């Protein structure tokens, strides 16, 4: 039986067809009660604090999730990179964007422990303040935030660079903690918000990881479990 399950696991991959079956868009419910939107002054203060902590000659950003497939900034150079002491984890709970109050989503962040393979992007040399401000606006939505900016060291083929990354604050309101893969898959196969489905987010991420030759065993298992969840839900719906 164990061998049979393993064989089935290896054959199943999340596809665009799976995603199309669950893709939908929900109204934006706005900020979670107890949180608010950041003001421009607050974003500016975050950038000022980051540049007081470290003022780079070259601005590098470490991408491990959606920044790989949708960076939304100009990239001068990219390198394969590894962040040691951090791992890619679906540990952020979202009640908007790709989830709702009734059916929260999960989003990737860097959590402590292990290692994470991704990409290091070098941004243009000019106006680091403005570029960091755009990153804050894109990556941080809740106030107070759970997905927080942090300078980390990442190893590339050309040496170690200091890069900005977004990591999970374990005391944050949106911290989901360490969840079993089966629970993560159950959520990702069902949740959606005004930016679309969580399955789409996962599919785009694993597709680009594969394109860049980045292996992440946990992500590959989760995408297979999500495909299985969607297939089983569709099969059950046909029987009713």
Automatic annotation (TrEMBL):
EC number(s) reported in the record: 4.3.2.7
CC annotations in GO: cytoplasm
SUPFAM superfamilies: Gamma-glutamyl cyclotransferase-like
Top-level taxon of origin: Bacteria
GO biological process, one term: glutathione catabolic process
Entry protein name: glutathione-specific gamma-glutamylcyclotransferase
Molecular function terms, GO-annotated: glutathione specific gamma-glutamylcyclotransferase activity
């Amino acid at each position: 039986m164990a061998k049979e399950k393993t064989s089935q696991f290896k054959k199943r991959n999340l596809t665009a067809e799976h995603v199309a079956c669950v893709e939908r868009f929900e109204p934006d419910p706005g900020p979670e009660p107890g949180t608010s939107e950041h003001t421009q002054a607050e974003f500016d203060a975050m950038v000022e604090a980051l540049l007081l902590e470290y003022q780079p000659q070259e601005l590098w950003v470490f991408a491990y999730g959606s920044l790989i497939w949708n960076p939304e900034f100009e990239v001068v150079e990219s390198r394969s990179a590894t962040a040691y002491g951090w791992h890619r984890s679906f540990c952020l709970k979202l009640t908007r964007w790709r989830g709702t109050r009734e059916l929260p989503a999960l989003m990737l962040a860097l959590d402590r422990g292990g290692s994470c393979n991704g990409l290091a992007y070098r941004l243009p040399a000019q106006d680091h303040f403005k570029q960091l401000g755009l990153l804050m606006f894109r990556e941080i939505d809740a106030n107070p935030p759970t997905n927080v900016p942090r300078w980390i060291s990442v190893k590339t083929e050309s040496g170690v660079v200091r890069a900005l990354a977004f990591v999970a604050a374990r005391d944050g309101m949106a911290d989901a903690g360490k969840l079993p893969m089966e629970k993560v898959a159950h959520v990702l196969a069902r949740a959606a918000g005004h930016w679309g489905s969580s399955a789409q987010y996962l599919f785009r991420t694993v597709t680009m990881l594969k394109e860049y030759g980045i292996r992440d065993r946990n992500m590959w298992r989760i995408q297979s479990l999500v495909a299985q969840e969607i297939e089983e839900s569709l099969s059950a719906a046909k029987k009713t």
